[in-house]
Design a protein that fits this description.
Elements lengths: L5 H4 L7 E6 L6 E11 L2 E5 L2 E2 L2 E2 L7 E7 L3 E15 L2 E16 L6 E11 L11 E8 L3 E7 L11 E8 L2 E15 L4 E8 L4 H20 L3
Antiparallel strand pairs: 1-2, 1-6, 2-3, 3-8, 4-5, 6-7, 7-8, 9-10, 9-12, 10-11, 11-14, 12-13, 13-14
Length: 225
């Protein structure tokens, strides 16, 4: 997405917090600001301060801008056009250009995987495999896992909210207490998907799972996905 079209696509960004980064020169550093107004490639930001006064900003200085919305963070490049005074407020006028780098605001990074797992509902006994159901973990984060079970068993979980997950990683099997977040049947693949949130992640598993997620994340970036 072009930076010049960002405000048209997400006008609610007006009023959002902006981090201004100056990457070189005497005033190199990070400064807080706010997007006060904008149209197309010309944006008006609240002028950043330095030591109780306005931060000197010269025409042509290149800036890195980071805008935060509820769901995403947008990184944009701009250059200073000048300043304008609107009443008692001094605005920094910036011309943005180039592509927008959009980052999803998620608490946990979720990566795809294909791990054989087993799951059992707490407080219920299923008459199969001593109460355990075989499944495939489709993706995982430090916050939870999405797994697929064969067939349509969504109705079986109607009154169930808590599960024990048998989760193997690095030749170590961990038993994790989980909360059921979503259950749905995917008719196309004839599987029931469960989204489970971990109640607690042991420190040793958190480290190994963090390494696993990081490797998957780097591999997907290397593939250009």
């Amino acid at each position: 997405m072009e930076a010049t079209t960002l405000l048209n696509k997400d006008p609610q960004l007006i009023g959002s917090k902006v981090g201004i980064s100056i990457v070189a020169g005497l005033y190199k550093g990070e400064y807080p600001s706010r997007l006060e107004d904008g149209e197309g490639d010309v944006w008006k930001l609240s002028h950043p301060f330095l030591g109780g006064g306005l931060l000197p900003m010269f025409r042509g200085v290149e800036l890195k801008l980071s805008l935060s919305s509820d769901k995403s963070v947008y990184n944009v490049t701009g250059s200073v056009l000048g300043t304008v005074r609107e009443g008692a407020v001094v605005m920094l006028v910036v011309k943005v250009f180039g592509e927008v780098d959009k980052l999803q605001r998620r608490r946990f990074v979720r990566v795809p995987c294909m791990l054989n797992v087993e799951v059992a509902p707490l407080g219920f006994f299923l008459d199969s495999h001593h109460g355990w159901l075989d499944g495939i973990a489709k993706d995982v984060s430090l916050g939870g896992v999405r797994l697929a079970l064969k067939g349509n068993c969504s109705s079986s979980f109607r009154d169930m909210s808590r599960f024990i997950l048998k989760f193997p990683l690095d030749d170590v099997v961990s038993y994790l207490s989980c909360r059921l977040v979503v259950v749905r049947y995917i008719e196309e693949h004839d599987v029931t998907e469960l989204a489970l949130a971990f109640d607690f992640l042991p420190a040793i598993l958190e480290k190994s799972l963090g390494r696993f997620i990081r490797k998957k994340e780097l591999a997907s970036k290397g593939d250009g996905r």
